[in-house]
Amino acid sequence: xxxxxxxxxxxxxxxxxxxxxxxxxxxxxxxxxxxxxxxxxxxxxxxxxxxxxxxxxxxxxxxxxxxxxxxxxxxxxxxxxxxxxxxxxxxxxxxxxxxxxxxxxxxxxxxxxxxxxxxxxxxxxxxxxxxxxxxxxxxxxxxxxxxxxxxxxxxxxxxxxxxxxxxxxxxxxxxxxxxxxxxxxxxxxxxxxxxxxxxxxxxxxxxxxxxxxxxxxxxxxxxxxxxxxxxxxxxxxxxxxxxxxxxxxxxxxxxxxxxxxxxxxxxxxxxxxxxxxxxxxxxxxxxxxxxxxxxxxxxxxxxxxxxxxxxxxxxxxxxxxxxxxxxxxxxxxxxxxxxxxxxxxxxxxxxxxxxxxxxxxxxxxxxxxxxxxxxxxxxxxxxxxxxxxxxxxxxxxxxxxxxxxxxxxxxxxxxxxxxxxxxxxx
Length: 426
Known about the structure:
single chain; alpha+beta; 2 domains; five-stranded mixed β-sheet; 14 helices; 64% helix; 8% strand; elongated
């Protein structure tokens, strides 16, 4: 009994009733217009004149123009806002934004028509039926009321109403509650179907999520490569400087160079970190603009400064190197790949020298880095282990490839990356 009462008069039922009454209010302008159109064909003119049949004819005539107006794109967000607040359906089951496709507009029109159609009936019954039910319930207690002209008009002057007045009135009120609850439940079932996302909406949402994920991955790679390399280089330089200072005869020149390298590395990294954090502060970043902005860091033109303060001895192949300017995007990605390769060499090879070769030929840039495998335990830093995966992602974004692993019978570690030059012009 308690559950039945809650279904008929509970908070959710009351909110759905309000939603239905709102639909009746939205139908009113269309109904008034239809009544005016039909007034010349009824016995009494005016929107409130005529028989009950004329009123229902105006009601039926009002629904088609209501459906037509719901084809406007902004009808969906307005309907969704009302349904979210009053229908008791989880908010995530509704679509967001104006209806962009023909299917979405047709669904919205169906919803709006159903809403105003049921709302007009429930709102009209809510206005007329409670007073009539109260009068019916009062018949057994008032002879004057039973003898009135209104009672005679509605056939309530029959003696049986003395017995049936109270239960009939209560039955009318319960019937109104049942009808309202049923109409509200019907709207709640149809709301996700008619106001939910269409396949086109789901595709657009998936594309937005993919773009946002691409931007997040891009920022993560930038932070990992820039900050991760800096931490590895600074750790190595600081450790070497400490050991030299603690030596019986400290080499102050070496310590000064190590501190200078630490200073230059941290300064460069702070500048790169500010650039990336600036993207995170943007109010509404666009995926492509954010990706380009995040990549607007140093390119191969800054490679000499990177190698000079990397904490490693880097041997470059003098016979190799780009013959001319590279596409900006390829240059930036190549810089980050070299940076991650140096960071990886620092962690696994310590101070062992690194061989670097850059060669642009046959429409692609080849980056090859090799360092001896010393067998020493790598320097572990929190959050590490994603560098080589980031290198592969950078290469894949340009349509290239990355291969890494032991080479030369396991004596060296080789990182080989190929970047199509055409990939930087897209």
